[in-house]
Write a structure and sequence with these properties.
two-stranded parallel ribbon; 2 domains; about 500 residues; single chain; alpha/beta; 8 strands; six-stranded parallel beta sheet; Rossmann fold
């Protein structure tokens, strides 16, 4: 059993000043201790043994949630023990807790016994869980309101789903003409880049893009595109590139033909191999780049023939005509070179986008066939309502049930997870209840699962708003800024239970 040996030092006593306490806690500084002690302080300071029902403590993994539950129960068990069964350290723990809360030891012991009894008999209401589990509970409760089948299953194994979808994709080769053509192009591209023609692992890795929060908007647009759309996009991009390159090539060929008709070579011009003749020749070979600053200077100063060339006068003679070709080419490149580069990059990735579209169709088919939803689907459905509804109806019951929110490992929380939590925390802050957010930006490890450490480091003065700048989100932001207090949690090894103005 975990024994709480001593009270936390006074470094964190200022946490009673504001209702939103944000702790930037480095490794080993006692993040879990801080949440556990605050949980115990809230329930022990209340005369209602069912107060634990009004607290929602959330963390990122099942292991961390179970550890938090165990520590809370250990603390209550130590306090609830009859005095003759307590060890000396447990007696010290009871005495210090009694002093800090301003509650007599006997009353504190009785409260701990009643609370422990209530938790054990109503364990389902002991809300210490992962964010995923809490979101699943909301969706399950409001499935009909959100137009979701009530008998859906939750798919948490994204790796298994991606492997299944990748296998299905390869099974379609030879059966689906469009997909077969796409995969052949993919294989040829790999061979041209000295990669293996067998790219199943590459496709599997690529499939992870479908489940990134920052790709949701783009993915939703991708759904609207058909195979014909991709072919049209490809044709349009290629035609635009060809038009620009043909105009440049035509002028460069005419200019260089003029140079050759006068019996001149590149060495007859200023800059020689870096001069005007060489530049036209590079353009003809397909090297579409802007001229060098030195060449631009030669043309602007009307310097053509090289001083050491016996044909410098012939070069000077055709200089004005070459200047006209040069201007027409630079005008075209100035407007079109970036467009050509962009179009070529899009074409490079067009096969990827088309492949992503096929993967997306397969994912949707698997979900529909097996009646499963991804946990990311839940976050999106809830966030859509919260962002667009003035009063999110899915929180009408949840929002009044929980009065305190204690959030652990916040640096790993995703954008949608946080959007879904903001109205709940805001409702609690509006009534003056204590809320706790604990994290460490240096320990952010879940970016691959859409974690956004900036959400933590920007608090309390900035919350990552949704793209729609709704007036009420400004109100929420102001509430967090006014109610929040950022502190650094110092390293400790004990439990502090202090009196507080927050009930």
């Amino acid at each position: 059993m975990l024994i709480f040996k001593r009270i936390l030092p006074a470094c964190a006593q200022s946490m009673t000043q504001k209702p939103l306490q944000i702790f930037n806690a480095s490794a080993g500084s006692g993040k879990t201790y801080t949440l556990v002690q605050e949980y115990l302080r809230i329930i022990l300071h209340s005369s209602n043994p069912k107060k634990f029902r009004a607290i929602l403590a959330m963390t990122f993994t099942n292991k961390a949630a179970n550890e938090m539950k165990t520590r809370i129960l250990d603390g209550l068990i130590q306090l609830a023990k009859p005095e003759y069964e307590k060890t000396p350290s447990e007696i010290t723990f009871l005495t210090d807790t009694s002093k800090n809360l301003g509650i007599g030891p006997k009353i504190l012991e009785e409260r701990a016994q009643k609370i422990l009894n209530q938790i054990l008999h109503n364990y389902h209401a002991f809300s210490v869980m992962t964010i995923d589990k809490f979101t699943h509970r909301i969706i399950r409760t409001f499935a009909r309101d959100l137009n979701i089948s009530v008998d859906f299953d939750v798919e948490l194994d994204l790796t298994g789903l991606r492997k299944n979808v990748t296998d299905l994709l390869f099974d379609e080769i030879g059966k689906n003409e469009e997909l077969t053509d796409l995969m052949m192009r993919y294989a040829r591209t790999n061979l041209n880049r000295d990669r293996s023609w067998n790219f199943s692992d590459q496709v599997f890795d690529f499939s992870s893009l479908l489940f990134r929060e920052d790709a949701i908007k783009s993915i939703s647009l991708l759904k609207k595109l058909s195979a014909e759309d991709f072919h049209k996009i490809q044709d349009d991009l290629q035609q635009e590139i060809a038009k620009i390159e043909a105009a440049v090539d035509r002028n460069a060929v005419e200019a260089y033909d003029l140079i050759k008709s006068k019996g001149l070579t590149d060495s007859d011009f200023q800059g020689k191999s870096n001069g005007i003749g060489s530049y036209f020749k590079r353009l003809i070979k397909g090297n579409f780049s802007m001229p060098s600053p030195t060449l631009i200077k030669y043309v602007s100063e009307n310097k053509w023939g090289h001083p050491q060339s016996p044909n410098r006068f012939q070069a000077d003679e055709i200089g004005p005509l070459l200047a006209q070709y040069f201007k027409q080419i630079t005008d075209i490149l100035d407007k079109g070179i970036s467009k050509v580069a962009l179009n070529k990059e899009i074409l490079k990735n067009l096969n990827n986008l088309s492949l992503l579209n096929h993967l997306l169709s397969l994912v949707e088919g698997v979900k529909e066939e097996q009646n499963v939803l991804l946990i990311s689907d839940f976050y999106k459905k809830i966030a859509d309502i919260i962002v667009n509804e003035k009063i999110p109806f899915i929180y009408e019951r949840m929002g009044t049930r929980y009065e305190h929110f204690l959030l652990d490992e916040f640096q790993d929380t995703s954008h949608l997870q946080w959007i879904n939590m903001i109205p709940l925390v805001h409702n609690s802050l509006a009534t003056g209840n204590l809320n706790l957010i604990v994290g460490d930006g240096k320990q952010a490890i879940y970016r691959w699962r859409n974690g956004e450490v900036e959400q933590f480091t920007n608090l309390p003065h900035k919350i990552l708003n949704p793209e729609k700048k709704l007036p009420r989100w400004q109100k929420l932001k102001n509430n967090f800024s006014e109610s929040g207090q950022l502190q650094r949690l110092q390293k400790t090894s004990g439990l502090r239970l202090e009196n507080s103005s927050f009930q």
